[in-house]
Amino acid sequence: MLTKRIIACLDMDGGRVVKGVRFKNLRDAGDPAECATAHARNGADEIVLLDITATSANRRTLLDAVRSTARSLFVPFTVGGGIRQLEDAAAVFDAGADKIAINSAAVRDPALIGKIAGRFGSQAVVVAIDARRDAGRKVDGSSDKSFEVFVAGGRTPTGRDAIQWAREAAACGAGEILLTSMDRDGTQSGFDCQLVREVAEAVSIPVIASGGAGSARDFIEVFRDGRADAALAASIFHFGIENIAQLKSELHDAGVAVRWPC
Amino acid sequence: MIAIVDYGAGNLNSVKKAFDYLGAEVLVTDQPETVATADKIVFPGVGHFSSLQALNRSGLREALLQAASAGKPLLGICLGMQWLFEGSEECAEVAGAGIFPGRCRQFPSSVKSPHVGWNSLRVQQGSRLLRGVAQDSFVYFTHSFHAPVVPGMTAASEYGLQFTAAVERGNIFGVQFHPEKSGEVGLSILKNFCEA
Predict the structure, then answer these.
(1) With a cut of 0.90, is the ipTM above it?
(2) Closest residue of chain A to B185, computed from CA coordinates
(3) What are the tens digits of pLDDT across the range B84-97?
(4) DSSP type of residue B156
């Protein structure tokens, strides 16, 4: 039986793993290669490394970190941050990534999705979408249904609807959608199941839910109610709140199909 | 020496890295001559079945078929396993090797496609490649088409239907999943291949 994936995300800044709340207030959480191996040993089904402050100046840092992280990692490994063109993606694959995640660049130029997929396969292209509940439409209380896409690490609103953008990205050749709720990011208050479900029902490619993981209960909800194919968490795992092995054993006991024991 | 066949589609780093980690001598090559001199051959595939057209142009198809009939251990991974069959609905014009009967087909519409993630294996007795792999072990898949159940299937998985996750006949091995991305289980399978 196909299992629900638990993905450990490492947000990286200047070669170190960091974690913030609602995309701000960053705290240090360790070396990427060490964190990745530890998570994999603990049962992570996949590792995502995001260079959250990617600029051309720290491109080298990113590639070095990708190389050292990839060396002894034998589960799928996704890298994102600062990938603007096909050549950037090629360099990240060359350094050892299995998949790349693109966000701002894909919004700017959706054809980039197809270009990378054409050369490396759709399975290697994850389109990351940062979405926020659209406060502008909160007039009658039924407003919560709309989600707006943000780019540039959550700094820039685009005016685009997240569900429509997910559909377009899939049509362009994306292999998976990594969907982050900005409202829930780092809060450990649970995933935004409504957002996840709307996207999961709109596309046939897998949807990875992100933002808000705080307990095993949250994962159970996002798999059952949110219909997520995978769920990603960062802060919950770094600071020893709950390790992946324990989380998976709880999911297993609750009847969610997970790779357990692994 | 193990030759990893590069026919210009996708990223072969992960496969090479896993063999490096196991201490095997591997060479990524697009040269039919190198394939001909290798002791063992790994044929990783990625992407669309039509990309296999490149094999015909480059002379790699002949080199692979010759190695196979000469009794060299050959491991097809993902699309590389599908190539071992007669063909695929994904691209009717491109012929597979026809070592195993039947054509690869799309998953039924009752399930999302592609099939991505960790799924369990129903392992059959007697496989050399899967020696030591426990029943219901999890491995990582990512594919939209699946190979039919045939004699020679050594492991099955389920996703909307039962499909071939691994095949084996003599010196020919195929896995639909990615052993290089399947943790300890995957590494043990690659190690078995190194010793085949």
Answers:
(1) yes
(2) A262
(3) 999 999 999 999 99
(4) E
Is A74 close to B180, i.e. CB distance below 8 A? yes
Angle between helices B13-21 and B183-194 (to 10 degrees): 70
CB contacts of A92 in chain B (<8 Å) are: none
* Sheet architecture: strand order including B122-123: B26-29, B2-5, B40-45, B74-78, B172-175, B162-169, B153-158, B122-123
Distance (Å, whole) CA A171 – CA B4: 32
Domain ranges of chain B: 2-194
Average pLDDT over residues A14-43: 81
**For residue A141, is pLDDT > 50?**
no
Pick the most confident of A185-189, A210-214, B48-52, B186-190.
B186-190
What average pLDDT does range B168-174 have in this prediction? 98
**CA–CA distance, A4 with A200 (Å, rounded to integer):** 14
Going by C-alpha positions, the residue among B11, B131, B40, B93 that lies closest to residue A124 is B11
Which residue is it, tokens 């943000």?
A: A150
Q: How far apart are CA A261 and CA A257, in angstroms?
A: 11
**pLDDT one-digit tens code per residue, B139-170:** 999 999 999 999 999 999 999 999 999 999 99
Residue type, A147: F
Q: Which residues are bridge partners to A161 per DSSP?
A: A148
Say yes or no: B134 contacts chain A, CB-CB below 8 A: no
Instruction: List, in order of start, the domains of chain A with CATH numbers.
Output: 5-253 (3.20.20.70)
Q: Nearest CB to B187: which of A71, A74, A76?
A: A74
Question: Number of Cβ pairs closer than 8 Å across A and B?
Answer: 93
Range B40-73 burial, b when 16+ CB lie within 10 A, else e: bbbbbbbbbbebbbebeebebbebbeebbeeebb
The pLDDT of residue A139 is above 50: no
What is the Cα A4 distance to its own chain's centre?
A: 15
Query: A102, A80 in Cβ contact below 8 A?
Result: yes
Q: Out of A9-13, A71-75, B127-131, which region has the weakest mean confidence (pLDDT)?
A: A9-13
Fold of B2-194: Rossmann fold (3.40.50)
DSSP string over A55-90? -GGGHHHHHHHHHHHHHT--S-EEEESS--SHHHHH
